[in-house]
Write a structure and sequence with these properties.
heterodimer, A: 195 residues, alpha/beta, 4-stranded parallel sheet, two-stranded antiparallel ribbon, 6 helices, 32% helix, flat, B: 172 residues, 5-stranded mixed sheet, two-stranded parallel sheet
């Protein structure tokens, strides 16, 4: 339906299949109450309201701009709230070549983020250095910070970035509340020298 | 009345005699070579001389010729006469063991960062530079990456099989 009040032949929009409602977590329903696992409910809330922090240094950043704009619309996943303040963000999206001189900056941004935090490496350069096998380029951001999901491509299309984002959502939704206190996670951070 | 390369060359030889060598005009741009102790004198003359007026330093960089023993590093100055719209270029050569060249920062402020960059990549020691330290590379880098003996590739990677990339290995 057109957003115009004076359509001569108004057409009713078919919204029955256009809007999807997130499924409720498995639980026990009774008369006037509903019980479920706290981690499921928290995961559901978290995964549909991720605040991304775009760290865009080159062409993958342009693809990301397309992803966030109206056509591909990252807002459909509850992630329209970009913020450029690491302290309030959940997801660090690294898009583009990270030079070795930029490495400490990226690491500082990661350290400033509060737990729980996730990292998405978008594109060949962020994942592995890409074509820049050079003395000045960091050969993958996983040398300095842990990465949750890698998106391949040079640059990846917006669909690929969305796919990576949905993989992050899966992680976020299924993660136990205490995973980030687990010994395994701490050991992972220890390998990067992060407390 | 445009300033011709011939006139510039005559003025230079009139002033400096035989010390300036290797005059050439690749693609119409006058190029020559000066002894490395003379670089500031030549720059100053080109700057001050009323009829030459080369008062704009377009570029300052270096080139590494590893096979040219005793004069491995060339520092290249590109100058522009904005009045006549004429460009020239001259080089000074220095040995790699003691790559000392006088700084041009007193004459051109623009030389400051360009000399830092040249130091960063080639290790040319600009004597008298106010702040000669790395500008583009990470500060903890312990070599000069554009010298020919250092490989371009990042040496920390273990997952790249040289044979797959057409270098080393059995592929010729």
């Amino acid at each position: 339906m057109r957003p115009v009040r004076f359509n001569i032949h108004p057409k009713e929009a078919v919204t029955s299949s256009a809007i999807s409602v997130t499924e409720a977590p498995a639980g026990y329903t009774g008369d006037g109450f509903f019980t479920a696992k706290l981690s499921d409910v928290v995961g559901l809330a978290r995964k549909n309201s991720i605040w991304p922090l775009p760290f865009a240094t080159s062409c993958c950043g342009i693809e990301f701009m397309a992803t966030a704009a109206a056509h591909y619309d990252l807002a459909r996943f509850g992630a329209e709230r970009m913020a450029f303040t690491p302290r309030q963000c959940d997801l660090l999206m690294v898009m583009g070549t990270i030079a070795k001189k930029m490495g400490p900056v990226l690491r500082q941004v990661y350290l400033q983020m509060a737990e729980p935090r996730w990292v998405l490496a978008v594109g060949a350069c962020a994942s592995s250095g890409g074509i820049f096998d050079s003395y000045s380029v960091l050969q993958g951001i996983d040398q300095i910070i842990p990465v949750d999901v890698y998106v391949p491509g040079c640059p990846p299309r917006p669909e690929a970035i969305l796919d990576g984002f949905m993989k992050i959502q899966e992680l976020v939704g299924q993660e136990s509340i205490r995973r980030r206190n687990s010994t395994q996670y701490k050991a992972l951070l220890d390998t990067y020298g992060i407390q | 009345m445009a300033l011709s390369n011939e006139e510039i060359k005559n003025k230079l030889t009139e002033k400096f005699g035989d010390t300036l060598t290797n005059f050439d005009e690749p693609y119409g741009m006058l190029s020559f070579e000066a002894p490395k102790d003379m670089n500031l004198k030549v720059l100053q003359f080109l700057y001050d001389e009323e009829s030459l007026h080369f008062q704009f330093l377009t570029d300052l960089c270096a080139v590494h010729y590893p096979d040219d023993k005793g004069r491995e590093l060339a520092v290249v100055y590109h100058l522009h006469n904005l009045v006549e719209n004429v460009r020239i270029r001259f080089k000074v050569f220095t040995g790699i063991e003691k790559p000392d060249v006088f700084t041009a920062t007193k004459l051109f402020s623009a030389a400051n960062w360009m000399e830092r960059e040249t130091y960063d990549f080639f290790g040319v020691n600009f004597v008298g530079h106010p702040n000669l330290k790395r500008i583009l590379n990470v500060e903890e880098m312990d070599y000069f990456p554009l010298r020919k003996e250092f490989p371009m590739e990042d040496q920390t990677r273990v997952d790249k099989d040289d044979e797959m990339f057409g270098r080393g290995g059995s592929i010729i």
